[in-house]
Amino acid sequence: MTHRDHIPVVIVGGGQAGLSVSYYLTQQGLDHVVLERHEKFHSWRVNRWDSFCLVTPNWQCRLPGFPYRGDDPDGFMVKEEITDYLDAFADTFAPPIVEHCEVTRIAKRPGGGYLVDTSQGNYSTDQVVIATGGYDNPIVPPYADQLDPSILQMHSVDYRRPDQMPEGATLIVGTGQSGVQLMEDLHLEARDVHLAVGPAPRSPRKYRGRDAIDWLYDMGHYEITIDKHPNPQHALTKTNHYMSGRDGGHEIDLRRFAAEGVSLYGSVSGMQGSTVEFLPDLEANLDDADASYLGIRTAIDAFIEKNGIDAPAEPPFEKLWRPEQEITQIDCEAAGITSILWAIGFRPNYGWIDVDVFDAQGRPQFHRGVCREDGFYFIGLGWLNTWGSGRFLGIDEDSRYLADAILAQSKQTLRTAS
């Protein structure tokens, strides 16, 4: 029989979510271990480009017992500052973490609890917290295999800086937060950039004297729970609004970049040889992004008026550019495109979890991270409870809630055993 060390609680994932739960379990004196397949905070250290920075203000960094204490609460930490902040948080309580330990299987244990197999030995445990996030498998569509192999293809997770890309133009596919920031990164280096624009919404940055996020926080948007959201399915599937924290923070209007020479197209629909095909949805996607942008401005205006707040006025919004026609096909060779940068997201990988906590589509099912299987939890996912879940702002509340649930379950296990 395989030897197994018994640990009451196993946390899988050594990022900010897993270590936040560990912080509260440490406070409660509950024995546990954190298993991390790389090193703690690996994604922040390794899977970010050189110019990466937060898009939410520093004041939203509120890890348990360790809120941001720097001198720029309204600024946006760059990558090195973020990892310094995370390391300093971990130093406050010395989490029981085992690094370079990959969990290969989790299954139910006969009689209760779980079996955890890893690359560094096996465990039995009463409770499991999955804190691996949703960024395991970079998404690249199947038709990418049909592209001329002379054209370099790279996913955003592997991008670091403009000089990685070969001479010539780059086509960036995707306009979520990563896609638009990588577009700007290349554009600022005077690289020839083409951008396939998807349906992602955009947000103002500064509006009427304050960051839009500050307004939205005061308006209660970060307190809305998924249970009380007017359209929870839309919230769960909606792409994050794009904007930037670079150089003090600014909004990103793709029309302005088009006017400055970035070539815009609609959503990519296929590839064959050196040909890339697009849907004729560029103008619709730009209009939808602007509608989101204007909706946020209108909501802020209403809040200001309702509360009698003295805030400076803003000039009306104007479209700086619009496409003269919808281009549905380009030849990369003719356009000088030598590389494709994919920025269309990730999919989680839960294939190593052999526990009945998923729906028919493979999505974890829980309420505030607590699954129907006793002692099984998820944390660090978007809308675990609120808009702030999965972000620095909401991780304290989420991890404290789970830690209390874990402690209650632990007491129940002890009562049952006795």
From TrEMBL:
Name the record gives this protein: FAD-dependent oxidoreductase
Superkingdom field: Bacteria
UniProt keyword list: Oxidoreductase
One Pfam family per UniProt: Pyr_redox_3
One of the record's GO molecular function terms: flavin adenine dinucleotide binding
UniProt cross-references to Gene3D superfamilies, sorted A to Z: FAD/NAD(P)-binding domain
